């Protein structure tokens, strides 16, 4: 994987105060650090500098964000939020059902 493949990728933080939170990689600083944003607390104007080893990089890519960044334009916070909400809503479809099912079988 080249460093340019990381731009636009979705990643979960695996350490720090933002642990288990979903972010989008907006830029690459060097081989160890990237800039990430969630569009809310970490806006695109002030992205978080994070070590790559502290991220769980997923296979998902936000194509619309990647295209905007490759064109040299700025990404809006609302676009970042929409992509992250879309990814979170896909996961939450199954989690409540599994939790209820597990609790039901345990009792």
Entry keywords:
alpha+beta, SH3 type barrels, five-stranded antiparallel sheet, 3 helices, 34% helix, disordered C terminus
Topology:
Elements: E1 9-13, E2 22-28, E3 33-37, E4 48-51, E5 55-61, H1 63-70, H2 77-92, H3 95-106
Antiparallel strand pairs: 1-2, 1-5, 2-3, 3-4
General description of the model:
This protein is of the alpha+beta class. It has a single domain (3-106), classed as SH3 type barrels. Helices cover 34% and strands 26% of the residues. It contains 3 helices and 5 strands; from the N terminus they run βββββααα. The chain has helices at residues 63-70, 77-92, 95-106, and strands at 9-13, 22-28, 33-37, 48-51, 55-61. A 5-stranded antiparallel beta sheet has the order 4-3-2-1-5, sandwiched between helices. The chain is globular, with a radius of gyration of 15 Å. Mean pLDDT is 82; it is low at 92-107.
Strand tally, please?
A: 5
Structural class: alpha+beta
CATH second-level architecture: Roll
Rg, alpha carbons? 15 Å
Low-confidence stretches: 92-107
Q: Give the DSSP E fraction (strand runs of 2 or more residues).
A: 25-35%
Which range best describes the helical content: under 10%, 10-25%, 25-40%, 40-55%, 55-70% or over 70%?
Answer: 25-40%
Shape: globular
The end-to-end distance, rounded to whole angstroms, is 46 Å
CATH fold type: SH3 type barrels
Could you give the order of strands across the largest sheet? 4-3-2-1-5
Number of helices: 3
